[in-house]
Specification:
The chain is mostly helical. It has a domain of about 55 residues. It contains 14 helices and no strands. It is elongated.
């Protein structure tokens, strides 16, 4: 049975279950069924139907809270996360409010919470933080990253290390947005250290993360007046990119060209014409792949 067939079967089962529960309850079972069906609709990319289920689930949650009843932490978070994921496209203010409701219950969330384990907690927290940062709401994202790091703790493993580097990179973005340059440099640096360790052992999930974080730290070092550090980070980024381009891990040379041009500009400002020309030639080489062969045919010497 295909995944689509599995989803269709699950949807039919929940349609029947919800129809029965709407007549006879109990409310707690109806709440769970609505959240589960909403999640199925999300996987089927039926956002309108999913939103309707999450809206109804959250109405039940609000009624239960108003009546002085406890609502299971796992169900509570799943409902607001599900609706927030839909609202992040087009309605960031409503999304942020739903995520604020999740934040209120983060202290109650742990690996023993129903529906959650270590990985799902970290993925949920990073997902919420990503949505908030993408919507320009950086300051609201930090509690989610702190929760993810707290849950990860000192646990070892490739997956854990990849997520840990993601968290520190996100903190770097948050501090960068807040104008806290030294804090951003520190967090990007932590992410880079972890990513470098993983990359050396071929355990990193996406080497572009290392390139992005080196570039981000370079920008911060430039703002801090550390030109040497800025150039060093950009050169490290080009080294990683060059290897990715040569091994087919990256197919778009534009980032490489932009970085080489930036490095050339930095060297020119320092009066180092030779190094500036070297990186301009590298930019041309990657921007126009046939130029190097043409230069060779014409007997024009170039060096890297």
């Amino acid at each position: 049975m295909s995944s689509d067939e599995h989803l269709d079967t699950a949807l039919s089962e929940y349609n029947a279950k919800i129809a029965k529960l709407e007549d006879s309850g109990p409310v707690s079972d109806l709440l769970e069924a609505l959240i589960n069906r909403g999640s199925i609709f999300l996987m089927m990319e039926s956002s309108i139907s999913a939103l309707s289920d999450f809206d109804e689930a959250i109405d039940i949650i609000e009624d239960e809270i108003s009546s002085g009843n406890d609502v299971d932490t796992g169900l509570y978070i799943r409902a607001f996360e599900g609706r927030g994921r839909i609202l992040c496209v087009g309605e960031p203010a409503r999304m942020a409010e739903d995520y604020r409701r999740i934040e209120e219950r983060l202290d109650d969330l742990n690996v023993h919470t129903r529906y959650f384990d270590l990985r799902s907690i970290v993925q949920m927290c990073c997902g919420c933080a990503d949505d908030l940062i993408e919507s320009g709401l950086h300051s609201q994202a930090e509690p989610f990253i702190r929760k993810a790091l707290d849950v990860l703790g000192s646990r070892m493993g490739d997956w854990e290390d990849n997520r840990r580097s993601d968290c520190h990179a996100l903190l770097g973005e948050i501090y960068e947005d807040a104008g806290k340059v030294s804090d951003a440099i520190r967090e990007y640096g932590t992410a880079i250290d972890i990513e470098s360790y993983l990359s050396e052992r071929n355990l990193i999930e996406d080497r572009m993360h290392l390139v992005s974080d080196l570039t981000a730290r370079a920008d911060m070092r430039s703002k801090a007046g550390d030109t040497d550090g800025c150039i060093s980070d950009m050169i490290r980024a080009t080294d990683v990119l060059e290897d990715m381009l040569s091994t087919g891990q990256c197919h778009d040379p534009k980032i490489m060209v932009d970085l080489c041009q930036s490095i050339a500009s930095q060297y020119m400002e320092r009066g180092d014409v030779k190094e500036s020309e070297r990186f301009l030639l590298k930019a041309v080489k990657h921007g126009l792949p046939n130029v190097e062969n043409a230069m060779n045919r014409l007997g024009i010497k170039h060096s890297e």
